[in-house]
Every structure is written in structure tokens, then in C-alpha cells.
């Protein structure tokens, strides 16, 4: 059965509209899919420490004790057939919780190498979906803020070999319940044309 890695990054937890949509997506991939949920806010990762940095710089073997958590996170990603990231936009960029996950997973000589000055990803590509939530507007005619998150995340995931990245944008969520419902409906309509997902209606899903 397919395995789905779902990263949840919102401090609003189950009340997050983006998190709701991401959980629906995870189950719609296959009715018997194994969904691995890593909530990066409810179970925060420890900051990168000097010992970890020293192991990276010192070319330590992947079995080094300071790589235990990094290997666990990379292993979860390697074993997944699909990656779904549900993240808010914080100050135009990825939230700290997601950035820390990236810092553990994007690791030289493990998930990427450098050849002739170019970074080459070592992970097998897989469909990756990013549900990006924002209280304001950053795309279209109503845009009033910058979006550094989307290009950054696409670039950094590409470094490790994940190039098949698709965004679902939930904008203007601070405008009230009607705006939230409209954003979710628009995203669901878009997903209905994606062969990875079954047609609507999406069910209520509790993970």
C-alpha cells in the first residue's frame, strides 16, 4: 500500500484549514494508504546543536550518534511514496518548525552531494504537495505581500531530489469564515482534476 508522509506545521493544529485539507488529501490518495503524521508544532524538533554540526563538518558516518534524529526524519521521507506539507506562511517565509525539519533532512553526503559546484539530490523523486495557508493575499489582484516561501521551498526540496512539487494556495484566511470556505472550495476543485486524488466530495478525515 502507498505510504504518505504528512508534515503539519501550523500552531492552530486541528483547527487549521490547511491542515484539514492536507489530511483529506492524505486519505484520498488511497483508501488504505499508510499515513505517517509528523506534527512539527505539537512535537517540536530540538535545535541543531554543535555536536551535530561537528559531525556534518567532520564527515561522520551516518551511524554516528549525533545523526540519530536526522536519520529518523530522512528515513520517514525515504519510505514515503508521497509527501504532503501543510504550512502557514510566517513573515513571508516558512515557519521555524518547518525550517528545522529541513535543516535535519537536507544533509550533505546523505540527501545531496556536490559535483562540479552543483548540488545533486540523492533521494528518489516523489509527488510532493504543499498546502500553503496565509491570512493575507500574496498572489493575484489582491496581493499585498511578498511570497518568499514558495520559491525557497521548491528550491530546497529540489536540492535533495524532490522536483515534483505542487502548491495549493489558501489565501485571505483572515477575512473570515466565508473566505476560508471559498479558499478550501477552490483548492478542492483544483484537486479534482489531479489524477493522484479521487473526485470530490472529500470526506471528513480524522487522523
UniProtKB/TrEMBL annotation:
Q: Name one GO molecular function term.
A: FMN binding
Q: What class of enzyme is it?
A: oxidoreductase
Q: Which of this chain's residues are annotated to bind FMN?
A: 10, 133-136
Q: Which UniProt keywords apply?
A: Flavoprotein, FMN, NAD, Oxidoreductase
Query: What name goes with this protein?
Result: FMN dependent NADH:quinone oxidoreductase
| Functional summary from the UniProt entry | Quinone reductase that provides resistance to thiol-specific stress caused by electrophilic quinones. Also exhibits azoreductase activity. Catalyzes the reductive cleavage of the azo bond in aromatic azo compounds to the corresponding amines.
What EC designation does it have?
Answer: 1.6.5.-, 1.7.1.17
Q: How does it assemble?
A: Homodimer.
Domain Flavodoxin-like fold, residue spans: 3-191
Give the cofactor note.
Binds 1 FMN per subunit.
Family membership noted in the UniProt record: Belongs to the azoreductase type 1 family.
The cofactors named for this UniProt entry are: FMN
* Entry coiled-coil feature ranges: none
Segments spanning the bilayer are: none
Q: Which Gene3D superfamilies match?
A: 3.40.50.360
Q: Does the keyword Flavoprotein apply?
A: yes
Catalysed reaction, written as an equation: N,N-dimethyl-1,4-phenylenediamine + anthranilate + 2 NAD(+) = 2-(4-dimethylaminophenyl)diazenylbenzoate + 2 NADH + 2 H(+); 2 a quinone + NADH + H(+) = 2 a 1,4-benzosemiquinone + NAD(+)
One matching Pfam family is Flavodoxin_2
Show the InterPro entries listed in the entry. Flavodoxin_fold, Flavoprotein-like_sf, FMN-dep_NADH:Q_OxRdtase_AzoR1, NADH:quinone_OxRdtase_FMN_depd
Top-rank taxon, per record = Bacteria
Amino acid at each position: 500500500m502507498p505510504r504518505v508522509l504528512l508534515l503539519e506545521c501550523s500552531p492552530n493544529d486541528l483547527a487549521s484549514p490547511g491542515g484539514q485539507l492536507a489530511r483529506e488529501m492524505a486519505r484520498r490518495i488511497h483508501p488504505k494508504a499508510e499515513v505517517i503524521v509528523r506534527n512539527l508544532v505539537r512535537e517540536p524538533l530540538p535545535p541543531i546543536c554543535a555536536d551535530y554540526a561537528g559531525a556534518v563538518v567532520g564527515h561522520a558516518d551516518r551511524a554516528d550518534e549525533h545523526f540519530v534524529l536526522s536519520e529518523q526524519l530522512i528515513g520517514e521521507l525515504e519510505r514515503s511514496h508521497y509527501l504532503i506539507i501543510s504550512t502557514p506562511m510566517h513573515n513571508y517565509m516558512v515557519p521555524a518548525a518547518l525550517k528545522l525539519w529541513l535543516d535535519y533532512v537536507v544533509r550533505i553526503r546523505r540527501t545531496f552531494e556536490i559535483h562540479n559546484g552543483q548540488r545533486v539530490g540523492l533521494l528518489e523523486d516523489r509527488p510532493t504537495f504543499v498546502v500553503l495557508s496565509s491570512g493575507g493575499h500574496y498572489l493575484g489582484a489582491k496581493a499585498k505581500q511578498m511570497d518568499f516561501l514558495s520559491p525557497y521551498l521548491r528550491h530546497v526540496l529540489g536540492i535533495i531530489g524532490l522536483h515534483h512539487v505542487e502548491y495549493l494556495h489558501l489565501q485571505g484566511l483572515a477575512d473570515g469564515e466565508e473566505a476560508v470556505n471559498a479558499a478550501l472550495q477552490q483548492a478542492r476543485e483544483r484537486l479534482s482534476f489531479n489524477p493522484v486524488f479521487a473526485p470530490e466530495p472529500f470526506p471528513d478525515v480524522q487522523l
